[in-house]
């Protein structure tokens, strides 16, 4: 009887075609504004039927997210957005459908979080040197999870003390390469991260490929070659920060590389995001959706 009841409620991505999947968003476990439960409720209210929470470098929200999704009758896939650098360019890799207790993945993410704290202290020092004191401490008060500190927390604190009117203003003038609060940082390597995701039984996906503005077209191809060679399988084609031209461009690349395509809002919170959960165009119809790869 238990089995029969359970089988009614366990979502199997392979057996039902989701009408609205969203595989990229954040909670207070990283730099989102809402707790996982609230993100789940918002996703469901927006019609999302298969959802992944993908906090930066931390899996701490997944238990709450899965329980909430189950309660709401929404399919759920474990997710994470991992920070790497490739040829010194910071890039994000989304991992999906992995075992969240796998030691290689958990240990790798733990090291990334430790690196974030050290980077944040250096950012605080750099900002103090131009006359803006105590920003590390201030940013920490904005971090829902003190072991996951992001430039977004710095930006929110700096807006609160009147350094600029909004987050984009803070990033533009203080927190991007060449600006006084930006410090160089060593993230994980592409090979490490694909290895962790693979070991944990998940699928690696290139996050928002249209956002790596400093990457030349040649580097974009070389990066995707490396990603494919190392076992990467997916690419975000439809995402919050992609223009219609980006969608066409990355759909072509998905076909060229035989990647599965992902779709994700990159929702961080009301008023702070390109688009709301689930509120983005469907993938081009001929592409293979990435949920097909998830066990
Ligand atoms: P980090 O991973 O600590 O380097 O922080 C990057 C995060 O900052 C991204 O995931 C976004 O949430 C946020 N972010 C990056 N650039 C901008 C921007 N121009 N405006 C607002 N938020 C941004
Ligand atoms: Mn973020
Ligand atoms: Mn990202
Ligand atoms: Mn993101």
Cα distance spanning the termini: 24 Å
Number of domains: 2
**Strand-residue fraction?**
5-15%
- At the first level of CATH, what is the class of the largest domain? Alpha Beta
Instruction: Specify the structural class.
Output: alpha/beta
Number of strands: 7
Q: Give me the strand/helix succession.
A: HEHEHEEHHHHHEHEHE
Number of helices: 10
Q: Largest sheet, described in full?
A: 7 strands, mixed
Q: What value does the Rg take, in angstroms? A: 19 Å
Kindly report the CATH topology of the largest domain: TIM Barrel
**Hetero ligands:** adenosine monophosphate, manganese (II) ion
- CATH homologous superfamily (4th level) name of the largest domain: Metal-dependent hydrolases
Order of strands side by side in the largest beta sheet?
1-2-3-4-5-6-7
Residue share in helix: 40-55%
């Amino acid at each position: 009887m238990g089995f029969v009841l359970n089988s009614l409620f366990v979502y199997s991505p392979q057996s039902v075609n989701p009408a609205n999947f969203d595989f990229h968003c954040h909670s207070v476990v990283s730099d989102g504004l809402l707790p996982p439960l609230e993100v789940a409720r918002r996703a469901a209210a927006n019609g999302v039927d298969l959802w992944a929470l993908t906090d930066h470098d931390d899996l701490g929200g997944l238990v709450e997210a899965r329980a909430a999704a189950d309660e709401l009758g929404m399919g759920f896939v474990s997710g994470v957005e991992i920070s790497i650098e490739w040829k010194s360019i910071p890039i994000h890799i989304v991992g999906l459908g992995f075992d969240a207790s796998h030691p290689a993945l958990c240990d790798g993410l733990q090291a990334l979080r430790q690196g974030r704290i050290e980077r944040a202290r250096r950012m605080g020092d750099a900002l103090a040197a131009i006359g803006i004191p105590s920003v590390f401490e201030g940013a920490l008060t904005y971090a829902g999870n003190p072991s996951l500190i992001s430039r977004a927390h710095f930006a929110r604190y700096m807006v609160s003390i009147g350094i600029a009117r909004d987050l984009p203003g803070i990033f533009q003038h203080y927190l991007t390469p060449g600006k006084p609060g930006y410090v160089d940082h060593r993230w994980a390597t592409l090979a490490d991260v694909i290895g962790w995701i693979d070991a944990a039984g998940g699928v690696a996906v290139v996050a928002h490929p249209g956002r790596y503005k400093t990457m030349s077209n040649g580097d974009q191809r070389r990066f995707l070659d490396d990603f494919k060679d190392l076992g990467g399988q997916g690419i975000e084609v439809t995402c919050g920060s992609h223009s219609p031209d980006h969608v066409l461009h990355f759909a072509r690349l998905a076909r060229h590389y035989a990647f599965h395509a992902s779709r994700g809002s990159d929702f961080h919170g009301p008023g702070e995001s390109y688009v709301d959960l689930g509120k983005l165009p469907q993938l081009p119809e001929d592409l293979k959706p990435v949920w097909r790869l998830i066990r």
